[in-house]
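ok so for the tutorial part 2 we go from a plain amino acid sequence to predicted structure tokens. step 1 is just haveing the sequence, like this:
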Amino acid sequence: MDSPEATFPQVIELTGERTAPGIWHENYWFARHDAAYRWITANLDLGTGRVLDAGCGEGYGAELLRLAGAASVTGLDYEHTTLRHVRRAYPQVNVVRGNLVETGFAEGSFDLVTSLQTIEHLWEQPRFVTECARILAPAGTLVLSTPNRLTFPSGNWYHTRELTPTEFTELVESDFEITHALGLHHGEHLRAWETQCGSCVDAQLATAYDDWDAELTALVKSTRHEDFEIRPGDLDESLDLILVARPRN
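step 2 — the prediction. this is what the tokens look like for a chain of 249 residues:
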């Protein structure tokens, strides 16, 4: 599969609210987000589906879903500048500006709704989950991911409410039947580095990237989606949480 960042350089302003490809000192976070999209493309059938990427941000994830064979992919976000970038960079992705808790789409519009690393930004999280159920087809699939509050560094002021595994599950179960509860973890390469040097997340947050040592710089630059594992079990120890669910009919 082609990689969108290989073709389309990142040109939107980096504020800390969203990550993007093509920024070397953000590469660990980009790869961590990218891993969840890659899990979707490897494990879910997108062949004839209508897909909504809710909170699409820079657009790389929506483009991956399109490249994986989805019949149509719509990227939904609220910020004008970001959406202008998506239109330019990924012209085959449909782009809609809107409110995630009141999208304006008709009932049953999509076969798959993805929303990765987005729900923690929302004030009305239960309303968003209910809206996802409304716009999904009866046999549709929802995939949500979010940082695990038990392991995620505190202090991101863009996050209105981070969730534990139990809280995340209870939130989604109000409208959905969960089919997969997964955690994202460091893979062998990152674990080996941390055995020698300590937490790579703590190291990145401790100083400005211009002050990183050569070892940390090399690790961040070289991190890829393959350096993360997504699997069931050990959710409390996971870095990010991923739920796959279907509407309660």
